[in-house]
């Protein structure tokens, strides 16, 4: 029987690229998002191209009480789960409106962490599984321009790190992905440095390779490792004056 | 931004839009004239305009019927993607051009042909229907039964009848991913033409022709024919995985060659070496589909060998009866000019009855010329020879023909222009090419 991958937040460009990448390797694909009907065409395309099963499932990252039922309703407990759930919001709105900030924090931290935590439990009792979380370089250090989003991603990064530590002696694999800039619907129209910007397909390829090579934390473009190392090591008195 | 076709000439200032769905596309059409673009493999300015619409996001496969081989897919799906998906299940394209990096929409708009034109027809022969977005943003299904007029104007209509959104095409069942190939060295043009007539019953045929050869060697060629290999014809090892082929090379031209790299001497040398190495090959061989159909696809960005200035393609078809004389006159004009085409392809075409499509019963010759004054002087002469012999031109390759030449060689476009004007399409869909040619 073929392995299967569950993709949460499947409407994002990175998620779609990952769905294609795994399907190309023969994985059955379970696409989950809030509005599953909008994913039907994508699922049909994947099934036709790669001759695998591709199904769609309703999933709302903000409704944590529905998570257990969601997992039980899947055709099988997947071999791989990838969370591409995320919502950047507007920093200014997040600063001034606690409700808006709560939505950003819940979408990027609470929801993804809880569903992956729940799947981790199931994977542990089965004995194997791969957990992939798409976090962000924004979570490496809080910046004025997006610290609400960044703080939520920092929480998610810490959660994944904890899972990895917990399962280090078992057959569970946990991968943290920090993509850097990616040319997606979310960043369309932004003025991004092309040398720091990856295509969604490159992100998917990096994730596939990270799984095959049992990597822990990856940046998609290696240059981001350097950039973030510098940013993280700036002393706070200097960092607090920066503007970027 | 600046955009060009595969020949990298001309470059046009364009606004490039990439709509994500039909609603966004309809809104763009309402703004004013535009042209849809797929993979940008038309050589000249067919898919260039002041406003160019990239169809890359309309790239989903929609359905496949394994009983009839009918595939429904969006216009941005490439032929290579169709092969990657369906060859492992025993299906191949009914017609394929010389590159798999073309979109379905582009293949229909140019009504492309392949090595099997003489035996099976053009790409349009295997198109069952097309969903076309018109100037009002409405989508019409066009087929031989429904909106038949629009269907026939769209095959070969160069994207000027609307934006092709989806289409149904028929694939052909094959037993393997391999081709039984026959290679015939033809010492001169007459021998090449004879070889084509003698192999007319072959499914696939084409010839590489040496444009640098002169005198008694004028038109010396390597004629290749092919049949899909049955499983029984494969070696026992391959029979195990008949649809699996060794990786087709993946070289890349990393930079623009300097302008002097391709000169008459290097072209002559390359062609001589190519002829001799092929003439020594065994007559019968088995080739994977990649090297047989898409020899140049293994070198990404091969258009960069012509340098920054780019190059022009010239492709004409000369009808039977006049063909031998016409081809000889063209080859003589080329050798006289010293322009020398690096890559030249000769192919027998079969009869075709269609509104706008390029093919007709006769011989087609496709030539590459670097962007150079010598070439610019030569090409009008080749136009004239083609015209004198009753031939016509392939718009997917054209970047510089005059409106008058098109009118004189191909009166069918006049009716098309009238239709476009009367139905309001002219104000909605236009390319740099349609404006140059007055379509």
Automatic annotation (TrEMBL), chain A:
GO molecular function: oxidoreductase activity
Name of the protein in question: Short-chain dehydrogenase
Similarity-based family: Belongs to the short-chain dehydrogenases/reductases (SDR) family.
Keyword annotations of the record: Oxidoreductase
Domain of life of the native organism: Bacteria
One GO CC annotation: membrane
Signal peptide: none
Automatic annotation (TrEMBL), chain B:
Coiled coil: none
Keyword field: FAD, Flavoprotein
GO terms of molecular function: FAD binding; oxidoreductase activity, acting on the CH-OH group of donors, oxygen as acceptor
SUPFAM superfamilies in the record: FAD-binding/transporter-associated domain-like
Gene3D superfamilies: 3.30.465.10
Origin: domain of life: Bacteria
InterPro entries, per database record: FAD-bd_PCMH, FAD-bd_PCMH-like_sf, FAD-bd_PCMH_sub2, FAD_lactone_oxidase-like, Oxid_FAD_bind_N
Domain FAD-binding PCMH-type: 8-174
Flavoprotein recorded as keyword: yes
Record's keyword annotation contains Flavoprotein: yes
Protein name per UniProt: FAD-linked oxidase
Organism encoding this protein: Pararhodobacter oceanensis
Top-level taxonomy: Bacteria, Pseudomonadati, Pseudomonadota, Alphaproteobacteria, Rhodobacterales
